[in-house]
């Protein structure tokens, strides 16, 4: 698949990432992770072990023939396939990503399906794309009769979560799922990667990317998976610590919150571990504006301090005659 902004390549890439805790008590091992993500018999699950365990399913394709979301009501019909894949990080956090790329212009008439099937993960417009309107419309949300890419990602997440023989559905902590919707367009010649990250009132994360010309669509998807994972981690830990009172009783309630965070989440913070080198300026922007790593380090230190305080309090209680 050709990269963004190249001759014959896509003018726009759009996607959505769903992130959740895998519904099981303990992190699954590598063999189980591979079985969970084995979505196709003809392609293997890709696994890497360094710097952490990371498994990626093969892409599955969903054929669509529908209107794309637009900001101004312009009717843009597109035909082709949406690509979706699942990612499992350290056998603990599950993500599903659905995305497509689109060229600036397609044939003036709908073609036979064979024309689209040789372009996996591509939605070809019938006529011109109306890139600005589609970008804004996609990020705002679809109307009735328009493409709902979030449902594709959610369907894949549900498909994996229903694999009963691998999962016990007894999670060590309750967490909220998150959704991150993103678009990527080519920047000017020589322009570095950049992003705009916002959060809607309903909690939806919205990312607008400008990427170097030639960036492959799956590389853009990988960046957004990394952003979604670390945003989910930060939000989850922050929510768990909100209002937590260590000294409210003997510390049992606080310990039930803190121990799962240490056992299951704290070691997962590893931004940019698999982000393409050319796209790392996006994380630099995020750190400068939102200070994600500063927030995370503060939360992690707070957890350690609270566990130390609980230990000292219990020790003192036992020493009291």
Verbal overview:
The chain has 321 residues and is an alpha+beta fold. It contains 8 helices and 10 strands. A hairpin with a 5-residue loop joins strand 9 and strand 10 (205-211). The longest helix has 28 residues, at 292-319. It starts with 11 loop residues before the first strand and ends with a helix. The relative contact order is 0.16.
Question: Roughly what is the average pLDDT, rounded to an integer?
Answer: 91
Radius of gyration: 22 Å
Largest sheet: 10 strands, mixed
- Specify the helix fraction band: 25-40%
What order do the SSEs take from the amino end to the carboxyl end, as H and E? EHEEEEEHEHHEEEHHHH
Distance between the termini: 73 Å
Q: Strand content of the residues, in percent?
A: 15-25%
Q: What is the β-strand count?
A: 10
Shape: globular
Poorly predicted sequence stretches spanning 5 or more consecutive residues: none
Task: Write a short abstract of this structure.
The chain is of the alpha+beta class and 321 residues long.
Which helices and strands appear, and what pairs or packs with what?
Layout: E1 12-21, H1 30-36, E2 46-48, E3 54-56, E4 60-67, E5 77-89, E6 93-102, H2 113-117, E7 123-125, H3 131-140, H4 149-161, E8 178-186, E9 194-199, E10 205-211, H5 217-241, H6 252-265, H7 281-289, H8 292-319
Parallel strand pairs: 8-10
Antiparallel strand pairs: 1-6, 1-8, 2-3, 3-5, 4-5, 5-6, 5-7, 9-10
Helix pairs in contact: 5-6, 5-8, 6-8
């Amino acid at each position: 698949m050709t990269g963004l902004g190249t001759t014959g390549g896509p003018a726009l890439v759009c996607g959505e990432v769903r992130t959740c805790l895998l519904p099981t008590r303990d992190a699954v091992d590598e063999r189980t992770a591979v079985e969970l993500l084995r979505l196709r018999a003809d392609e293997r699950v890709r696994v890497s072990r360094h710097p952490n365990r990371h498994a990626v399913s093969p892409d599955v394709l969903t054929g669509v023939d529908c209107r794309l979301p637009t900001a101004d009501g312009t009717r843009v019909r597109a035909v082709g396939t949406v690509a979706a894949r699942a990612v499992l990080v350290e056998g603990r956090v599950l993500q599903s990503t659905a995305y497509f790329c689109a060229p600036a212009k397609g044939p003036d008439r709908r073609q036979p399906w064979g024309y689209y099937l040789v372009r996996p993960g591509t939605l070809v417009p019938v006529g011109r794309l109306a890139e600005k309107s589609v970008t804004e419309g996609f990020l705002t949300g679809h109307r009735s009769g328009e493409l709902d890419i979030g449902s594709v990602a959610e369907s894949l997440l549900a498909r994996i979560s229903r694999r009963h023989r691998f999962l016990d559905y007894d999670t060590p902590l309750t967490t909220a799922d998150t959704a991150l919707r993103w678009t990527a367009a080519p920047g000017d010649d020589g322009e570095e990667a950049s992003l705009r990250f916002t959060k809607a009132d309903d909690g939806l994360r919205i990312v607008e990317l400008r990427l170097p010309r030639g960036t492959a669509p799956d590389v853009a998807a990988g960046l957004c998976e990394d952003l979604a994972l670390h945003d989910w981690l930060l939000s989850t830990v922050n929510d768990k610590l909100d209002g937590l009172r260590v000294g409210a009783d003997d510390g049992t309630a606080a310990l039930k919150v803190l121990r799962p965070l240490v056992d299951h989440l704290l070691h997962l913070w590893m931004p940019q571990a698999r982000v393409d080198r050319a796209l790392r300026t996006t994380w630099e922007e995020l750190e400068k504006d939102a200070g994600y790593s500063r927030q995370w380090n503060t939360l992690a230190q707070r957890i350690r301090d609270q566990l130390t305080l609980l230990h000292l309090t219990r020790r003192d209680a036992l020493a009291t005659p």
